């Protein structure tokens, strides 16, 4: 069973997820955002096997370097955003100087690809390329737990007005990929409360019907 803890981090209240399997001492982190103090305190004494990034916008990568250096763990990111991780201009941190200073990280150790299966903490994570919010956005499916980044939210969808965003791609990612999963699939988004595929398929005003 996958055990999931969420942390709402930084001024944009980005959801970071700490995932553990049967071994209490090993974990994976998805999207360590800005001001990661609560997450850092929680992972004291834990071995972090990897940092998985749904995409490389600044509010999702703010804690990457601190955690990577502290824990010596690799970072996984889709190659379409490999340069975003290292560039404050591309990851958006230069666009909101009142929110954050420039954020730049070292390159990711591993690329992500559509259909890739990654075995971590005794579980298998399948990668789905779900662009639209950003060109390299991905979602991770582990059993019936889906981590959708900024693609699908409860009763909402990701914005597409940022550089590299494309509305047609976003709706195709949701309807053509995420909505193919079973109704009971639990959705853990990049912002806001968790939801389910069945609920969003029936009720989300942007993509239902």
From TrEMBL:
Taxonomically, the superkingdom here is Bacteria
Task: Say if the entry is tagged with keyword Hydrolase.
Answer: yes
A GO molecular function term, named singly, is: hydrolase activity
**Cross-referenced Pfam families:** Lactamase_B (PF00753)
Q: Which reaction does it catalyse?
A: 3',5'-cyclic CMP + H2O = CMP + H(+); 3',5'-cyclic UMP + H2O = UMP + H(+)
Is the keyword Hydrolase assigned to this protein?
A: yes
Where does the Metallo-beta-lactamase domain start and stop, copy by copy? 13-191
UniProt cofactor(s) = Zn(2+)
Q: Which UniProt keywords apply?
A: Hydrolase, Metal-binding, Zinc
Q: Which SMART domains match?
A: Lactamase_B
Checking InterPro entries in the record gives: MBL_Glyoxalase_II, Metallo-B-lactamas, RibonucZ/Hydroxyglut_hydro
What does the protein in this record do? Counteracts the endogenous Pycsar antiviral defense system. Phosphodiesterase that enables metal-dependent hydrolysis of host cyclic nucleotide Pycsar defense signals such as cCMP and cUMP.
**Per its record, how is this protein called by name?**
MBL fold metallo-hydrolase
- Organism of provenance: Paenibacillus faecis
